[in-house]
Amino acid sequence: MDAGISSILVFLTSSISLLSIWWLKPQKMRIAGMATSITSLFYQISIKNWAGLLEIVVICSNILSFAKYKKETK
Fold first, then answer.
1. DSSP characters for 4-51?
2. pTM, whole model, 2 decimals?
3. Quick check: 2 pLDDT over 60?
4. How far is CA 14 from CA 17, 19, 69, in A?
5. Distance between CA atoms of 35 and 62, rounded to whole angstroms?
6. Of 62, 54, 57, whose CA–CA distance to 35 is shortest?
7. Is the pLDDT score of 42 beyond 80?
8. How far apart are CA 24 and CA 5, in angstroms?
9. pLDDT digits over 46-68, tens only?
């Protein structure tokens, strides 16, 4: 069962990344980046790769860049 969940998470992460690169504007790509980071984090937890929990840093970085860009455009 774990292998099935892990496979789905990897598929979701790669699909979200690919689709966002093709069709989204930069600000929306940041939101999609947060989604891929979160699914990647869940994947790291599902395979018990505790070093992969550094994905939290990527999530924080995406949130900060989204907020900074939004602040600059106002």
1. HHHHHHHHHHHHHHHHHHHH--HHHHHHHHHHHHHHHHHHHHHTT-GG
2. 0.66
3. no
4. 5, 9, 25
5. 10
6. 62
7. yes
8. 27
9. 888 888 888 888 888 888 888 88
